[in-house]
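R.M. (postdoc): so does anyone remember the format we settled on? I'll just put the C-alpha coordinates first.
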Protein backbone atom coordinates (compact mmCIF):
# COMPACT_ATOMS: atom_id res chain seq x y z
CA UNK A 1 0.00 0.00 0.00
CA UNK A 2 1.30 3.47 -0.90
CA UNK A 3 0.22 6.68 0.77
CA UNK A 4 1.11 10.07 -0.67
CA UNK A 5 1.40 13.05 1.63
CA UNK A 6 -0.70 15.89 0.26
CA UNK A 7 1.65 18.50 1.69
CA UNK A 8 5.02 17.05 0.71
CA UNK A 9 4.17 14.62 -2.06
CA UNK A 10 6.57 12.12 -0.46
CA UNK A 11 5.69 8.51 -1.24
CA UNK A 12 5.92 6.04 1.60
CA UNK A 13 6.29 2.38 0.70
CA UNK A 14 4.35 0.90 3.59
CA UNK A 15 4.50 -2.63 2.17
CA UNK A 16 8.32 -2.83 2.23
CA UNK A 17 8.45 -0.99 5.52
CA UNK A 18 5.98 -3.51 6.90
CA UNK A 19 8.23 -6.44 5.91
CA UNK A 20 11.18 -4.87 7.70
CA UNK A 21 9.02 -4.17 10.72
CA UNK A 22 7.77 -7.77 10.91
CA UNK A 23 11.37 -9.05 10.90
CA UNK A 24 12.28 -6.67 13.71
CA UNK A 25 9.23 -7.64 15.71
CA UNK A 26 10.10 -11.35 15.46
CA UNK A 27 13.42 -10.62 17.16
CA UNK A 28 11.65 -8.49 19.74
CA UNK A 29 9.23 -11.34 20.53
CA UNK A 30 12.12 -13.60 21.58
CA UNK A 31 13.46 -10.86 23.81
CA UNK A 32 9.95 -10.40 25.11
CA UNK A 33 9.74 -14.06 26.22
CA UNK A 34 12.95 -13.67 28.20
CA UNK A 35 11.90 -10.40 29.79
CA UNK A 36 8.37 -11.58 30.54
CA UNK A 37 9.50 -13.86 33.38
CA UNK A 38 11.04 -10.90 35.18
CA UNK A 39 7.99 -8.80 34.40
CA UNK A 40 5.68 -11.52 35.76
CA UNK A 41 7.64 -11.80 39.00
CA UNK A 42 7.59 -8.03 39.40
CA UNK A 43 3.89 -7.56 38.75
CA UNK A 44 2.68 -10.54 40.79
CA UNK A 45 5.06 -10.43 43.77
CA UNK A 46 7.19 -7.30 44.00
CA UNK A 47 4.76 -4.73 42.58
CA UNK A 48 1.79 -5.54 44.85
CA UNK A 49 4.14 -5.52 47.86
CA UNK A 50 5.49 -2.09 46.98
CA UNK A 51 1.97 -0.83 46.36
CA UNK A 52 1.03 -1.60 49.95
CA UNK A 53 3.88 0.29 51.62
CA UNK A 54 3.30 3.17 54.02
CA UNK A 55 1.10 6.09 53.09
CA UNK A 56 3.83 8.74 52.91
CA UNK A 57 6.08 8.18 49.86
CA UNK A 58 9.79 8.77 50.32
CA UNK A 59 11.62 11.62 48.65
CA UNK A 60 12.46 9.54 45.59
CA UNK A 61 8.80 8.59 45.12
CA UNK A 62 7.68 12.20 45.48
CA UNK A 63 10.15 13.29 42.82
CA UNK A 64 8.88 10.62 40.45
CA UNK A 65 5.27 11.61 41.04
CA UNK A 66 6.17 15.24 40.37
CA UNK A 67 7.94 14.18 37.18
CA UNK A 68 4.83 12.30 36.11
CA UNK A 69 2.72 15.36 36.84
CA UNK A 70 4.99 17.55 34.71
CA UNK A 71 4.94 14.97 31.91
CA UNK A 72 1.15 15.03 31.96
CA UNK A 73 1.11 18.76 31.32
CA UNK A 74 3.18 18.27 28.15
CA UNK A 75 2.08 14.80 27.13
CA UNK A 76 2.60 15.41 23.42
CA UNK A 77 6.34 15.81 23.96
CA UNK A 78 7.20 13.39 26.73
CA UNK A 79 7.13 9.66 27.31
CA UNK A 80 6.33 8.35 30.81
CA UNK A 81 9.36 7.24 32.80
CA UNK A 82 7.55 6.49 36.04
CA UNK A 83 8.29 2.96 37.21
CA UNK A 84 5.43 0.79 38.51
CA UNK A 85 5.37 0.12 42.21
CA UNK A 86 6.32 3.68 43.18
CA UNK A 87 2.78 4.94 43.76
CA UNK A 88 1.61 5.79 47.28
CA UNK A 89 -0.82 3.44 48.99
CA UNK A 90 -4.28 4.79 49.70
CA UNK A 91 -5.14 2.35 52.46
CA UNK A 92 -4.98 4.83 55.35
CA UNK A 93 -6.81 7.88 54.02
CA UNK A 94 -10.34 7.05 55.18
CA UNK A 95 -11.79 9.53 57.66
CA UNK A 96 -14.66 7.27 58.69
CA UNK A 97 -16.52 4.15 57.69
CA UNK A 98 -18.93 4.49 54.81
CA UNK A 99 -22.66 4.17 55.28
CA UNK A 100 -23.86 0.65 54.55
CA UNK A 101 -25.11 0.22 50.99
CA UNK A 102 -27.17 -2.46 49.32
CA UNK A 103 -27.45 -3.81 45.79
CA UNK A 104 -31.17 -4.17 45.20
CA UNK A 105 -33.42 -5.22 42.35
CA UNK A 106 -36.48 -3.05 41.81
CA UNK A 107 -39.38 -4.48 39.83
CA UNK A 108 -42.08 -2.63 37.99
CA UNK A 109 -43.58 -1.75 34.64
CA UNK A 110 -41.40 -0.20 31.94
CA UNK A 111 -42.88 3.27 32.40
CA UNK A 112 -42.31 3.14 36.16
CA UNK A 113 -38.73 1.95 35.75
CA UNK A 114 -37.97 4.59 33.12
CA UNK A 115 -39.24 7.28 35.46
CA UNK A 116 -37.13 5.82 38.25
CA UNK A 117 -34.10 5.75 35.93
CA UNK A 118 -34.33 9.53 35.56
CA UNK A 119 -33.57 9.96 39.28
CA UNK A 120 -29.98 10.46 40.56
CA UNK A 121 -29.57 6.92 41.90
CA UNK A 122 -26.45 4.82 41.43
CA UNK A 123 -27.76 2.37 38.84
CA UNK A 124 -25.84 -0.87 38.67
CA UNK A 125 -27.48 -2.04 35.45
CA UNK A 126 -29.64 -0.71 32.62
CA UNK A 127 -33.38 -1.39 32.64
CA UNK A 128 -34.23 -4.96 31.71
CA UNK A 129 -37.70 -6.15 30.79
CA UNK A 130 -39.20 -5.72 34.25
CA UNK A 131 -36.45 -4.79 36.70
CA UNK A 132 -33.59 -2.44 37.49
CA UNK A 133 -30.56 -2.95 39.76
CA UNK A 134 -29.64 -0.02 42.01
CA UNK A 135 -27.11 0.60 44.79
CA UNK A 136 -28.84 2.38 47.68
CA UNK A 137 -28.63 3.19 51.36
CA UNK A 138 -31.06 1.83 53.93
CA UNK A 139 -32.89 5.16 53.90
CA UNK A 140 -33.34 4.98 50.13
CA UNK A 141 -34.70 1.43 50.40
CA UNK A 142 -37.43 2.69 52.71
CA UNK A 143 -38.22 5.55 50.32
CA UNK A 144 -38.59 3.17 47.38
CA UNK A 145 -40.77 0.81 49.40
CA UNK A 146 -42.94 3.73 50.48
CA UNK A 147 -43.35 4.61 46.79
CA UNK A 148 -44.75 1.12 46.18
CA UNK A 149 -41.80 -0.55 44.44
CA UNK A 150 -41.25 -4.28 45.11
CA UNK A 151 -37.63 -4.66 46.23
CA UNK A 152 -35.26 -7.61 46.44
CA UNK A 153 -31.96 -7.21 48.28
CA UNK A 154 -29.31 -8.97 46.19
CA UNK A 155 -26.20 -8.20 48.25
CA UNK A 156 -24.84 -5.98 50.99
CA UNK A 157 -21.61 -4.13 50.26
CA UNK A 158 -19.87 -5.66 53.26
CA UNK A 159 -20.54 -9.11 51.78
CA UNK A 160 -18.85 -8.09 48.54
CA UNK A 161 -16.01 -6.55 50.56
CA UNK A 162 -15.16 -9.94 52.03
CA UNK A 163 -13.89 -11.06 48.61
CA UNK A 164 -10.32 -10.02 47.69
CA UNK A 165 -9.52 -8.86 44.16
CA UNK A 166 -8.77 -11.91 42.06
CA UNK A 167 -5.10 -11.97 40.94
CA UNK A 168 -6.27 -12.44 37.34
CA UNK A 169 -7.19 -8.74 37.36
CA UNK A 170 -4.43 -6.21 36.65
CA UNK A 171 -3.93 -3.60 39.35
CA UNK A 172 -3.09 -0.03 38.38
CA UNK A 173 0.62 -0.71 38.97
CA UNK A 174 0.53 -3.91 36.94
CA UNK A 175 -1.29 -2.12 34.13
CA UNK A 176 1.37 0.60 34.04
CA UNK A 177 4.09 -2.05 33.89
CA UNK A 178 2.28 -3.95 31.14
CA UNK A 179 1.92 -0.83 28.98
CA UNK A 180 5.56 0.10 29.42
CA UNK A 181 6.56 -3.44 28.50
CA UNK A 182 4.46 -3.33 25.32
CA UNK A 183 6.20 -0.13 24.26
CA UNK A 184 9.61 -1.73 24.83
CA UNK A 185 8.79 -4.93 22.96
CA UNK A 186 7.01 -3.27 20.02
CA UNK A 187 8.75 0.11 19.55
CA UNK A 188 7.79 0.44 15.86
CA UNK A 189 4.10 -0.08 16.68
CA UNK A 190 3.40 1.12 20.23
CA UNK A 191 3.95 4.48 21.91
CA UNK A 192 2.95 5.17 25.51
CA UNK A 193 1.80 8.61 26.59
CA UNK A 194 0.72 10.24 29.82
CA UNK A 195 -2.26 12.28 28.66
CA UNK A 196 -3.21 13.71 32.04
CA UNK A 197 -3.34 13.00 35.75
CA UNK A 198 -5.99 12.19 38.31
CA UNK A 199 -7.73 15.11 40.00
CA UNK A 200 -6.64 14.62 43.61
CA UNK A 201 -3.42 12.61 43.64
CA UNK A 202 -1.92 13.38 40.24
CA UNK A 203 -1.66 9.72 39.24
CA UNK A 204 -0.71 9.35 35.57
CA UNK A 205 -3.44 8.52 33.06
CA UNK A 206 -1.82 6.31 30.45
CA UNK A 207 -2.77 6.03 26.79
CA UNK A 208 -1.14 3.64 24.33
CA UNK A 209 -1.12 4.53 20.65
CA UNK A 210 -0.84 1.67 18.15
CA UNK A 211 -0.01 2.25 14.48
CA UNK A 212 2.60 1.23 11.92
CA UNK A 213 4.35 4.62 11.97
CA UNK A 214 3.51 5.21 15.60
CA UNK A 215 5.81 8.21 16.12
CA UNK A 216 4.20 10.08 13.23
CA UNK A 217 0.87 11.89 13.23
CA UNK A 218 -0.37 10.26 10.04
CA UNK A 219 -3.37 11.19 7.92
CA UNK A 220 -5.30 8.07 8.97
CA UNK A 221 -8.67 7.35 10.64
CA UNK A 222 -8.38 7.22 14.43
CA UNK A 223 -10.31 5.06 16.89
CA UNK A 224 -10.38 5.25 20.71
CA UNK A 225 -11.06 2.53 23.28
CA UNK A 226 -11.19 3.30 27.00
CA UNK A 227 -12.04 1.64 30.29
CA UNK A 228 -12.72 2.43 33.92
CA UNK A 229 -14.49 5.75 34.15
CA UNK A 230 -15.80 4.03 37.27
CA UNK A 231 -13.47 2.53 39.87
CA UNK A 232 -15.48 -0.64 40.44
CA UNK A 233 -15.49 -1.74 36.78
CA UNK A 234 -12.11 -3.38 36.03
CA UNK A 235 -13.46 -5.50 33.17
CA UNK A 236 -12.94 -2.43 30.98
CA UNK A 237 -9.24 -2.44 31.82
CA UNK A 238 -8.95 -6.13 30.99
CA UNK A 239 -10.65 -5.68 27.61
CA UNK A 240 -8.32 -2.80 26.76
CA UNK A 241 -5.21 -4.79 27.66
CA UNK A 242 -6.43 -7.82 25.72
CA UNK A 243 -7.03 -5.64 22.65
CA UNK A 244 -3.49 -4.24 22.91
CA UNK A 245 -2.03 -7.73 23.23
CA UNK A 246 -4.06 -9.01 20.28
CA UNK A 247 -3.12 -6.18 17.94
CA UNK A 248 0.58 -6.13 18.74
CA UNK A 249 1.00 -9.89 19.05
CA UNK A 250 -0.69 -10.64 15.73
CA UNK A 251 0.78 -7.87 13.61
CA UNK A 252 2.51 -9.48 10.63
CA UNK A 253 0.74 -12.77 11.38
CA UNK A 254 -2.93 -12.05 10.74
CA UNK A 255 -3.63 -10.01 7.57
CA UNK A 256 -6.70 -8.33 9.07
CA UNK A 257 -4.85 -7.18 12.20
CA UNK A 258 -1.89 -6.03 10.10
CA UNK A 259 -4.20 -3.95 7.91
CA UNK A 260 -5.86 -2.33 10.93
CA UNK A 261 -2.51 -1.32 12.42
CA UNK A 262 -1.19 -0.15 9.03
CA UNK A 263 -4.27 1.87 8.08
CA UNK A 264 -5.51 3.29 11.42
CA UNK A 265 -4.28 5.08 14.51
CA UNK A 266 -5.64 3.12 17.47
CA UNK A 267 -5.61 4.72 20.93
CA UNK A 268 -6.31 2.82 24.16
CA UNK A 269 -6.85 4.32 27.64
CA UNK A 270 -7.18 1.28 29.95
CA UNK A 271 -7.82 3.17 33.21
CA UNK A 272 -9.33 6.66 33.10
CA UNK A 273 -9.94 6.72 36.87
CA UNK A 274 -6.65 5.51 38.40
CA UNK A 275 -7.10 6.97 41.88
CA UNK A 276 -10.60 5.53 42.25
CA UNK A 277 -9.38 2.09 41.21
CA UNK A 278 -6.35 2.26 43.51
CA UNK A 279 -8.64 3.29 46.35
CA UNK A 280 -10.69 0.10 46.22
CA UNK A 281 -7.67 -2.16 45.56
CA UNK A 282 -5.41 -0.66 48.24
CA UNK A 283 -8.23 -1.03 50.75
CA UNK A 284 -8.56 -4.74 49.88
CA UNK A 285 -12.00 -4.09 48.38
CA UNK A 286 -13.27 -2.58 51.64
CA UNK A 287 -15.31 -0.28 49.38
CA UNK A 288 -15.85 -2.61 46.38
CA UNK A 289 -18.70 -0.55 44.95
CA UNK A 290 -16.81 2.74 44.93
CA UNK A 291 -17.57 4.48 41.64
CA UNK A 292 -16.19 8.02 41.67
CA UNK A 293 -12.75 9.60 41.65
CA UNK A 294 -11.38 11.04 44.92
CA UNK A 295 -12.11 14.78 44.62
CA UNK A 296 -11.98 16.21 48.15
CA UNK A 297 -15.43 17.78 48.11
CA UNK A 298 -15.26 19.02 51.70
CA UNK A 299 -11.52 19.88 51.61
CA UNK A 300 -10.69 18.06 54.85
CA UNK A 301 -7.73 16.13 53.45
CA UNK A 302 -9.40 12.77 54.08
CA UNK A 303 -11.44 10.43 51.91
CA UNK A 304 -15.05 10.59 53.03
CA UNK A 305 -16.82 7.74 51.22
CA UNK A 306 -20.22 9.31 51.77
CA UNK A 307 -19.29 12.74 50.44
CA UNK A 308 -16.13 12.85 48.32
CA UNK A 309 -15.60 12.13 44.64
CA UNK A 310 -17.18 12.91 41.26
CA UNK A 311 -18.86 10.48 38.89
CA UNK A 312 -16.60 10.96 35.87
CA UNK A 313 -19.23 9.75 33.43
CA UNK A 314 -21.56 12.55 34.54
CA UNK A 315 -18.89 15.25 34.15
CA UNK A 316 -18.93 15.80 30.37
CA UNK A 317 -20.07 19.25 29.31
CA UNK A 318 -22.95 18.42 26.98
CA UNK A 319 -26.42 18.88 28.44
CA UNK A 320 -24.47 18.82 31.68
CA UNK A 321 -27.31 20.18 33.83
CA UNK A 322 -29.68 17.39 32.75
CA UNK A 323 -27.79 14.40 34.13
CA UNK A 324 -26.31 13.20 37.39
CA UNK A 325 -26.76 14.70 40.83
CA UNK A 326 -25.91 18.10 42.29
CA UNK A 327 -25.35 16.56 45.74
CA UNK A 328 -21.71 15.58 46.48
CA UNK A 329 -23.00 12.84 48.78
CA UNK A 330 -24.61 11.03 45.85
CA UNK A 331 -22.57 8.49 43.95
CA UNK A 332 -23.69 10.06 40.67
CA UNK A 333 -22.50 13.55 41.67
CA UNK A 334 -21.64 15.30 38.41
CA UNK A 335 -19.10 17.75 39.85
CA UNK A 336 -19.18 21.54 40.31
CA UNK A 337 -19.17 22.19 36.54
CA UNK A 338 -18.68 20.38 33.24
CA UNK A 339 -15.16 19.03 32.74
CA UNK A 340 -14.22 20.03 36.29
CA UNK A 341 -12.17 16.83 36.64
CA UNK A 342 -8.70 16.30 35.22
CA UNK A 343 -9.64 12.79 34.13
CA UNK A 344 -12.40 13.95 31.79
CA UNK A 345 -10.24 16.85 30.64
CA UNK A 346 -7.59 14.32 29.58
CA UNK A 347 -10.02 12.40 27.40
CA UNK A 348 -11.54 15.60 26.03
CA UNK A 349 -8.16 17.04 25.03
CA UNK A 350 -7.06 13.82 23.34
CA UNK A 351 -10.36 13.63 21.44
CA UNK A 352 -10.09 17.24 20.30
CA UNK A 353 -6.59 16.57 18.99
CA UNK A 354 -7.20 13.23 17.30
CA UNK A 355 -10.82 13.69 16.07
CA UNK A 356 -11.72 10.01 16.45
CA UNK A 357 -14.17 8.54 13.96
CA UNK A 358 -15.33 5.78 16.33
CA UNK A 359 -14.92 5.25 20.07
CA UNK A 360 -15.89 2.65 22.67
CA UNK A 361 -16.07 3.16 26.43
CA UNK A 362 -16.38 0.08 28.67
CA UNK A 363 -18.48 -0.10 31.84
CA UNK A 364 -20.15 -2.75 34.02
CA UNK A 365 -22.65 -4.25 34.26
CA UNK A 366 -25.72 -5.29 32.25
CA UNK A 367 -24.61 -6.95 28.98
CA UNK A 368 -25.83 -4.12 26.79
CA UNK A 369 -24.51 -1.99 23.95
CA UNK A 370 -25.70 1.55 24.62
CA UNK A 371 -25.81 4.19 21.90
CA UNK A 372 -26.73 7.86 21.34
CA UNK A 373 -29.28 9.06 22.30
CA UNK A 374 -32.62 9.87 23.96
CA UNK A 375 -32.65 13.68 24.08
CA UNK A 376 -33.66 15.15 27.47
CA UNK A 377 -37.26 16.32 27.56
CA UNK A 378 -38.13 15.16 24.04
CA UNK A 379 -36.65 11.67 23.64
CA UNK A 380 -35.49 12.82 20.18
CA UNK A 381 -33.13 10.44 18.44
CA UNK A 382 -29.59 11.27 17.33
CA UNK A 383 -29.36 12.73 13.80
CA UNK A 384 -27.30 9.70 12.73
CA UNK A 385 -29.66 7.31 14.51
CA UNK A 386 -30.12 4.83 11.65
CA UNK A 387 -26.37 4.43 11.17
CA UNK A 388 -25.61 4.34 14.90
CA UNK A 389 -28.37 1.82 15.60
CA UNK A 390 -27.16 -0.41 12.77
CA UNK A 391 -23.59 -0.34 14.10
CA UNK A 392 -24.75 -0.96 17.68
CA UNK A 393 -26.85 -3.91 16.50
CA UNK A 394 -23.95 -5.42 14.59
CA UNK A 395 -21.72 -5.07 17.64
CA UNK A 396 -24.28 -6.53 20.03
CA UNK A 397 -25.01 -9.63 17.98
CA UNK A 398 -21.29 -10.45 17.95
CA UNK A 399 -20.90 -10.32 21.76
CA UNK A 400 -22.10 -13.51 23.47
CA UNK A 401 -23.68 -13.13 26.89
CA UNK A 402 -22.23 -14.76 29.97
CA UNK A 403 -24.88 -17.47 30.16
CA UNK A 404 -24.23 -18.55 26.59
CA UNK A 405 -27.91 -18.21 25.72
CA UNK A 406 -27.72 -15.22 23.41
CA UNK A 407 -26.00 -11.90 22.77
CA UNK A 408 -25.81 -8.43 24.29
CA UNK A 409 -28.95 -6.30 24.21
CA UNK A 410 -29.36 -2.74 22.89
CA UNK A 411 -30.34 0.43 24.74
CA UNK A 412 -30.40 4.16 24.04
CA UNK A 413 -28.43 6.43 26.35
CA UNK A 414 -29.94 9.49 27.94
CA UNK A 415 -28.58 12.46 26.01
CA UNK A 416 -26.96 14.20 28.97
CA UNK A 417 -23.38 14.74 30.23
CA UNK A 418 -21.98 11.26 29.59
CA UNK A 419 -18.90 10.55 27.50
CA UNK A 420 -20.69 9.20 24.38
CA UNK A 421 -23.03 12.21 24.41
CA UNK A 422 -20.19 14.74 24.35
CA UNK A 423 -18.10 12.74 21.87
CA UNK A 424 -20.97 12.54 19.38
CA UNK A 425 -22.66 15.86 20.04
CA UNK A 426 -19.54 18.02 20.15
CA UNK A 427 -17.18 16.20 17.77
CA UNK A 428 -19.25 13.82 15.66
CA UNK A 429 -17.39 10.79 17.04
CA UNK A 430 -19.70 7.78 17.18
CA UNK A 431 -19.06 6.37 20.66
CA UNK A 432 -20.69 3.30 22.16
CA UNK A 433 -20.96 2.58 25.88
CA UNK A 434 -20.84 -1.15 26.56
CA UNK A 435 -22.06 -2.53 29.86
CA UNK A 436 -20.06 -5.73 30.28
CA UNK A 437 -20.80 -8.79 32.39
CA UNK A 438 -23.42 -9.45 35.05
CA UNK A 439 -21.57 -8.01 38.05
CA UNK A 440 -19.05 -5.27 38.78
CA UNK A 441 -16.05 -7.48 39.56
CA UNK A 442 -16.78 -11.04 38.41
CA UNK A 443 -14.65 -13.89 39.79
CA UNK A 444 -11.41 -14.42 37.91
CA UNK A 445 -12.50 -17.50 35.99
CA UNK A 446 -15.19 -15.42 34.25
CA UNK A 447 -12.87 -12.64 33.10
CA UNK A 448 -11.31 -14.22 30.02
CA UNK A 449 -14.60 -15.41 28.46
CA UNK A 450 -16.15 -11.96 28.96
CA UNK A 451 -13.09 -10.27 27.49
CA UNK A 452 -12.96 -12.59 24.47
CA UNK A 453 -16.65 -12.06 23.79
CA UNK A 454 -16.28 -8.28 23.87
CA UNK A 455 -13.26 -8.31 21.57
CA UNK A 456 -15.53 -9.61 18.81
CA UNK A 457 -17.52 -6.37 18.97
CA UNK A 458 -14.33 -4.33 18.73
CA UNK A 459 -13.17 -6.31 15.72
CA UNK A 460 -16.42 -5.44 13.95
CA UNK A 461 -15.87 -1.72 14.59
CA UNK A 462 -12.29 -1.85 13.35
CA UNK A 463 -13.52 -3.46 10.16
CA UNK A 464 -16.46 -1.04 9.85
CA UNK A 465 -14.04 1.87 9.85
CA UNK A 466 -13.07 1.05 6.26
CA UNK A 467 -16.59 1.85 5.01
CA UNK A 468 -19.16 2.39 3.73
CA UNK A 469 -18.73 6.14 3.95
CA UNK A 470 -16.94 9.03 2.32
CA UNK A 471 -13.53 10.57 2.94
CA UNK A 472 -11.37 13.19 1.31
CA UNK A 473 -9.36 16.35 1.77
CA UNK A 474 -10.83 19.85 1.66
CA UNK A 475 -8.51 22.26 -0.15
CA UNK A 476 -8.19 25.83 -1.19
CA UNK A 477 -8.71 25.18 -4.90
CA UNK A 478 -6.22 27.84 -5.94
CA UNK A 479 -3.51 27.50 -3.30
CA UNK A 480 -3.84 23.70 -3.09
CA UNK A 481 -3.50 23.72 0.68
CA UNK A 482 -5.75 22.09 3.31
CA UNK A 483 -8.36 24.31 4.96
CA UNK A 484 -10.76 23.84 7.86
CA UNK A 485 -14.40 23.50 6.85
CA UNK A 486 -17.78 22.28 8.03
CA UNK A 487 -18.99 19.04 6.45
CA UNK A 488 -22.69 18.34 6.71
CA UNK A 489 -25.31 16.01 5.29
CA UNK A 490 -28.34 18.36 5.18
CA UNK A 491 -30.79 15.47 5.04
CA UNK A 492 -29.37 14.06 8.30
CA UNK A 493 -27.67 16.70 10.42
CA UNK A 494 -29.63 18.82 12.87
CA UNK A 495 -27.61 21.58 14.52
CA UNK A 496 -30.30 22.02 17.14
CA UNK A 497 -28.81 18.91 18.76
CA UNK A 498 -25.24 18.62 17.49
CA UNK A 499 -22.40 21.01 16.80
CA UNK A 500 -21.16 21.48 13.21
CA UNK A 501 -18.92 18.67 11.99
CA UNK A 502 -15.42 19.89 11.15
CA UNK A 503 -12.64 18.28 9.19
CA UNK A 504 -9.06 18.00 10.44
CA UNK A 505 -7.71 21.54 10.18
CA UNK A 506 -4.10 20.35 9.81
CA UNK A 507 -4.56 17.77 7.06
CA UNK A 508 -7.90 18.87 5.61
CA UNK A 509 -9.16 15.28 5.99
CA UNK A 510 -12.85 14.55 6.57
CA UNK A 511 -14.36 11.12 7.22
CA UNK A 512 -18.06 10.42 7.43
CA UNK A 513 -19.41 6.91 7.96
CA UNK A 514 -22.75 6.36 6.22
CA UNK A 515 -25.16 3.63 5.22
CA UNK A 516 -25.49 2.72 1.52
CA UNK A 517 -27.69 5.20 -0.35
CA UNK A 518 -27.77 8.50 -2.19
CA UNK A 519 -26.34 11.54 -0.41
CA UNK A 520 -25.61 15.22 -0.87
CA UNK A 521 -22.87 16.78 1.25
CA UNK A 522 -22.48 20.49 1.94
CA UNK A 523 -18.99 21.96 2.46
CA UNK A 524 -18.72 25.43 4.00
CA UNK A 525 -15.74 27.45 5.21
CA UNK A 526 -15.24 31.04 6.29
CA UNK A 527 -14.35 33.29 3.33
CA UNK A 528 -14.98 30.50 0.81
CA UNK A 529 -17.86 29.74 -1.54
CA UNK A 530 -19.86 26.77 -0.26
CA UNK A 531 -20.09 23.66 -2.38
CA UNK A 532 -22.50 20.72 -2.70
CA UNK A 533 -21.40 17.24 -3.69
CA UNK A 534 -23.85 14.42 -4.51
CA UNK A 535 -22.97 10.76 -4.86
CA UNK A 536 -24.30 7.22 -4.67
CA UNK A 537 -22.79 5.07 -1.93
CA UNK A 538 -22.49 1.30 -2.04
CA UNK A 539 -20.51 -0.83 0.41
CA UNK A 540 -17.21 0.95 -0.19
CA UNK A 541 -15.45 4.00 1.24
CA UNK A 542 -15.73 6.73 -1.40
CA UNK A 543 -12.66 8.94 -1.71
CA UNK A 544 -13.33 12.47 -3.01
CA UNK A 545 -11.24 15.59 -2.43
CA UNK A 546 -13.17 18.87 -2.37
CA UNK A 547 -11.79 22.19 -3.58
CA UNK A 548 -13.32 25.45 -2.35
CA UNK A 549 -12.84 28.82 -4.05
CA UNK A 550 -12.16 31.94 -1.95
CA UNK A 551 -15.06 34.42 -2.03
CA UNK A 552 -12.57 37.20 -2.70
CA UNK A 553 -11.59 35.58 -6.00
CA UNK A 554 -15.22 35.17 -7.05
CA UNK A 555 -15.97 38.78 -6.17
CA UNK A 556 -12.90 39.95 -8.09
CA UNK A 557 -14.05 38.07 -11.18
CA UNK A 558 -17.49 39.65 -10.87
CA UNK A 559 -15.97 43.11 -10.61
CA UNK A 560 -13.95 42.51 -13.76
CA UNK A 561 -17.07 41.43 -15.62
CA UNK A 562 -18.94 44.64 -14.85
Amino acid sequence: MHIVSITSGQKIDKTQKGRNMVALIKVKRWLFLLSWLGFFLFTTIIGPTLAKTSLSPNVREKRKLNAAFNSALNWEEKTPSLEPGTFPSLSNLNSKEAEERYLIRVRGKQKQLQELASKPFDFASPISQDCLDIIVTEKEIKELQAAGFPIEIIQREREAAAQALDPLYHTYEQTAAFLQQMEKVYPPLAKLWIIGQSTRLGLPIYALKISDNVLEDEDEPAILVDGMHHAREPLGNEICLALIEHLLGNYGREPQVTRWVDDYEIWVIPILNPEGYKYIVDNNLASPWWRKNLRDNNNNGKIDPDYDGVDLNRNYDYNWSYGGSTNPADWTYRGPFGFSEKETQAKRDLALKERFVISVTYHSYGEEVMYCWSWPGTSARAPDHDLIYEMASEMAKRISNEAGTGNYALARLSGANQSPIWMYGALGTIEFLIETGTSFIPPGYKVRPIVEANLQGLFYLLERLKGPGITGIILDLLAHRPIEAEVSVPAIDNYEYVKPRLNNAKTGRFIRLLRPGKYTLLFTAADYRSRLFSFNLGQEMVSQDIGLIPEQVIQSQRDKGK
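R.M.: ...and that's the designed sequence above, right after the C-alpha coordinates. Also worth knowing: The chain has three domains: 2-90+165-464, 101-159, 470-561. The longest helix spans residues 14-51.
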